[in-house]
Amino acid sequence: MPNTTVGIVEDDEVLRSALRRLIGEAPSCRCVATCATGEEGLEKLPPLAPDVVLMDLNLPQMSGTECIARLKELVPATQVIVLTVYEDSEHIFQALKAGASGYLLKRSEPEEVIEAIKNAKEGGAPMSSQIARRVVQSFHKLTAPGQATTALTDRETEILAFLSKGFANKEIADKLQISVPTVRTHLRHIYEKLHVRSRTEAIVKFLK
């Protein structure tokens, strides 16, 4: 299986080096570029077209959100995972609307970051459990009771309930004694029934 190519946009030198080392040590990943600013990211990353980019939001000049939007215009197939300390709704939704396909907190475990990279490349929308909870809470606030869940199966409703409590895909899989890919399949069906193609599009739809 070919390595997943990864780019990093992070202004903190210590964290940037740690992420480069983490990715370099993962058997399924290869770091192709590290960038300290959004401007550097837009210069280095498009020619390389990495599979996944880890993106900080708090960058010195151009914001991470702006960098995401411009990067997605240049290389639409590149999946962007936000890696940040911000866990408020405004930052989450702005980043997702700009084109991010995942959102992790910097306190995430190293293995969670690697799993998120793999998940994003496969078309998933990896999120820290705290972020997933905030997303689902927004879903609950903006959807009338019973409106979106009437077409869901009992298992899909069960998975959505776990998601609303902040459980990650692997934790849901463990609790239901099913595989992580099966959880992802159920999540895909949930969003299909909500007439969206991904978790990101679901959030954007809720905000309209």
CATH superfamily of the largest domain: Response regulator
Q: Which H/E pattern describes the elements? A: EHEHEHEHEHHHHHH
The neighbouring-strand order within the major sheet is 2-1-3-4-5
Number of helices: 10
How is the biggest beta sheet arranged? 5 strands, parallel
Total tally of structural domains: 2
Classify the helix fraction into a percent range. Answer: 40-55%
What class do helices, strands and sheet pairing give? alpha/beta
CATH overall fold name of the largest domain: Rossmann fold
How far is it from the N-terminal to the C-terminal residue, by CA? 40 Å
| Principal-axis shape | globular
Give the number of DSSP strands.
5
Mean pLDDT: 84
Rg over C-alpha atoms, rounded to the nearest angstrom? 17 Å
**CATH C-level class of the largest domain:** Alpha Beta
What's a concise summary of this model?
With 208 residues, this protein is α/β, with parallel strands linked by helices. The chain is built from 10 helices and 5 strands.
Which properties best describe this structure?
208 residues; alpha/beta; Rossmann fold; Arc Repressor Mutant, subunit A; 2 domains; 5 strands; 13% strand
